[in-house]
Amino acid sequence: MRRVLVLLSLLANVLFVCCEGLPDVGGGAAENGTEPVIIWEAPQPVKVGSSKVTGGYPRIHRLNDGRLMLSYSADGDACLSFSSDDGKSWGMPKIAMRSQDVSNAKGSARLTAAVPDFAQLSKNHPIRPGRIIYACNYRPRELKKDGTMGEKGWTTVAPYDISVSVSDDNGKTWSAPRQIFQSEVWDENIKKGCWEPFVLELPDGTVQVYFADETPHYKAGGTQKEWMNISVVESRDGGDTWGKARIVAQNSECRVGMPVVALHKGQLLLAVETTDYKGQRLHPIVIRNTVEENWSSTVGKGSPLRFEPFQTSIASEVNYSGSPYIITTDNFIVYSYQIADWWKPSPGMTSSEQLSQAKKNNEEEHATLEVQVCPKSEVVDGYFRTMRAPSRPIPVNQKTGTEQAIWNSLCDLGNDEILAVSQYNNRVYTVRGKIKMK
Fold first, then answer.
1. Among 393, 397, 375, which Cα is nearest to 384's?
2. Any residues with CB less than 8 A from the CB of 276 and at least 6 apart, and which?
3. Which of 79, 265, 298, 359 has CA 20 to 30 A from 170's CA?
4. How far is the CA of 243 from the CAs of 88, 130, 205, 240, 331, in angstroms?
5. Three state DSSP letters for 144-157
6. Spans in the chain with pLDDT lower than 70
7. 3-state secondary structure of 138
8. Residue 422: how many CA atoms within 13 Å on its side-chain side?
9. How many angstroms separate the Cα of 345 from the Cα of each of 12, 348, 352, 362, 409?
10. Shortest CA distance to 438 belongs to which of 37, 39, 24?
11. Is the pTM higher than 0.85?
């Protein structure tokens, strides 16, 4: 009974927030010169000529020559585009990694090149200076006889994998895809495998590709079949060869996924979505390690290395908040995530009906981008718990939940200016923001 009352209390608080509408841009910053605020410009679609770019899971990073590079997925391929004016205009899209069709005695599948990410190695990298390493998640999909894709994962034919392509001429040409991690070919067609690569260069030139992985847990069976971990694969020679995967973080029966890492003063700040107990919705946290430690042991459930970075917790049994992204700017740490909290009950619904319906409607397909920020001066030994000033820079209809701003990311433009990047109603949008103390 007590648990039910707690849940209903949480729901009441959520519904009150929903009735209040979206927070103001830069929300709630004090007027005493000690609170951060993000001043956002209007969202802009990424265009090629007069056409808006259709695609998903967009990421933008600055290259060594000053240009911005955009990666995204579209029509089963992993694509890219360049901007020479800080994102105001974009060149013609190119395909870095194409979908692949495979057939064997068990059937036919199309491996779609999904959720790409990339990083350019530094100019002073000891082996491959300036190489761009582009990673994607090849996902098997049912391939019908007429050449169209079905809705099923087709994992009896081919496994999920993480693959990379490299460019040594600043993005003009790309190598053939190379697999650096492979899940399993299962006896049943299920969506179980590896997910969402993130590419990072460490200060010594080691290249890391982080990803979420269900493979060893589903293979073990029993109670582990729904578990997920964060793993990493490393290259010591600029992407020429790759080592074996090792597990960075794992949370027992509770899932952990969608890794993104920021470097700050010798610390690896790993942003993930996770749950802490069954019944709780996904929400973003940080897991820290020093660069020197470099995940020498797996961070497990209950570890002091795991923490919520927010001044006000957004963990909930009602609202979903996932797909985290973390960056540092000159003076700030910036953390984004997608959050679904739009739904409110109809008159006459019982408390149990309200709770059930809220969980059903507050899902990722109804989410919007939210961003919080804190000064770097508030980070102590890699820990920070003062992320605040939540803002939602892309307007979505929070009365119906029919619009979405999802699979978002952030890019540091310098001088505490940032670019938020979003899959906004299935098109790629950017919105520029300036962080200030108010």
1. 375
2. 251, 254, 301, 315
3. 265
4. 39, 21, 15, 10, 35
5. CCCCCEEEEECCCC
6. 1-32
7. strand
8. 27
9. 10, 8, 11, 12, 31
10. 37
11. yes
